[in-house]
Hints:
By secondary structure, the chain is α/β, with parallel strands linked by helices.
Amino acid sequence: MSLESFDKAIFDLTNKELQRQCDYLEMIASENFTYPDVMEVMGSILTNKYAEGYPGKRYYGGCEFVDEIEQIAIDRCKELFGCEFANVQPNSGSQANQGVYGAFLKPGDRILGMDLSHGGHLTHGAKVSSSGKYYESFFYGVELDGRMNYEKIAQIAEITKPKMIVCGASAYTREIDFAKFREIADSVGAFLFADVAHVAGLVVAGEHTNPFPHCHVVSSTTHKTLRGPRGGIIMTNDEEYAKKINSSIFPGIQGGPLMHVIAGKAVGFKHNLSDEWKVYAKQVKANAKKLGEVLVSRGYDLVSGGTENHLVLLSLLNNDFSGKEASNALENAGITTNKNTVPGETRSPFVTSGVRIGSPALTARGMKEAEFGFIANKIADVLDDINNTELQAKVKKEVKELAHQFIIYDRAMY
Ligand code: DSN
């Protein structure tokens, strides 16, 4: 029986979501459109298989084919990042990070990560996350110019003496200097952990500095700039660390691995290893740059003044409307973004003075600088007259027309 006849409610809602993804301009910096072949394998019979353990060392029979699949995913992941060991089982980026902490820390140990309100991530020690509950977390941030000050981070490390330093961000527009972080970590005898979820797709294309060989352990998600299935990975060059990571993930915090997703990771990695990937990653950066340039030319402030990666962070500290109002107005105009705090924030985290805008998803649809210039002007038009709902409706029609020129999925693919 088809999904349509068995469960019309879920069938219809999934189609509505497909329509939304096709009609709107997806500019949430952490989202992307994965490949139909990745979705094909994720929707396959591989979901039926239990394979607790690792390739060649499973607790169940019948694992000969999933062993090969996981090994291919591991080998491709290592090739991509240029590292020696990879665990492709984490179900998400958060679980990957939880697995890293479990492998190297004891409850109460000190970690030093980037402040969530400065562009860090919940799992980098935020008090509401288990990373801030089980470990004693301290934070560094960015300066008012939106950039990390490595000397200041070194001073904070010197004072707080963390066992682990976490680098990596969710809303940072400049390259992260992993070598400098390693110097800081070495100066206080700390372990260096990089979470490159946001920039991984750029890293593997050589469009962002590689965290290896500087970091002891690296985690990432596979669905953001990497454009693969939703999930996590952990990598290292040290065999002893790899063993600790493996047991921290299974049996530490996970049971049976999601073999259909691991197969999706393998397929995604094959895309990431292709020559086309380098073209895509370069375009992601060029598009974000264009977006930023046009917004600045229209009088808008960007945190750090521009971007070196896949996102821009619009600062509304000097505007009389908030990040929340701006992202709502843009949503009404068919442009999906998210509100974000900015350095020097004066509004609450539920309101904010910033909007994070990313280029990965629309680049996956084939859009280039010309389209990003057009979109940036539309964003500025909407924000210039933020309460004009008629204008929002007009822009919504225009961006839908643009979106439909860049087909990403059709019903037959899915
Ligand atoms: N939720 C992701 C982001 O938007 O950056 C991070 O996990």
